[in-house]
Give the backbone structure.
Amino acid sequence: MSNVIIVGGLDVAELVFYLFFGFFLCLVWYLNRESRREGYPLEHDLTGKVGDDVGRLDFSKPKFFRLPFDRGIYSPEAVPRDALPTNVLPRRASGEPLDVVGDLLNSGLGPASYALRADRPDVDMHNRPRIVPMRIAEHIITEARDTDPRGLPVTGLDDVIAGTVRDIWVDRSEHVVRYLEVSLPEGGIVIVPMQVARLSQRRVHVDAVTGAQIAGGPKLASNDQITLLEEEKVQAYFGAGYLWATPARSEPLL
């Protein structure tokens, strides 16, 4: 019995290495599978055609999410792909970027691009619209020592007056100001993100777009709430102004 060999020529370090390699290979396969279950866009950039040339490594079932407040079941793979843009010039063989035609800020392309989110309001834990004007969120008030922007004129980057602040839109969940509601001289309202507004005691200055372009911002379907899709469009419109509001901004600094 003294000559019995239990493990023979087994190299423990080599065995551990092979086990680690196998574990890592399985981990990569698992993560790749999970990423494709959550709506991985297997589509061609130029044509928009959804193809299977980058095939899956398994036959896993699509992932489903049960939405709160009885909003049904959501599956990323069930969402239709975005349609190809029609407001662009044909792509050139040189590989240059797409040339947008028409209204740049409302084009939905480039710096003005946005995601097609659900056309319903974001809600808080009580299933109430999360972002609303202060005339609805009665429990939220402005600090007495701060400047109340309501009633102040709103100017664009060219210092042209676009309208007057009529109300403040606040986030019920986080108690912060999200938008300013601007009343236009010709009638109607437009929502301006607070991130692009500079508040003083005399005016509200929007440095993203010109005074005339403020009036061209996306309009809301309701005067008392904003949907997720409308938020995307508003943020894209004013965000694109930092590059497309004037011809000078579209050119390089040097």
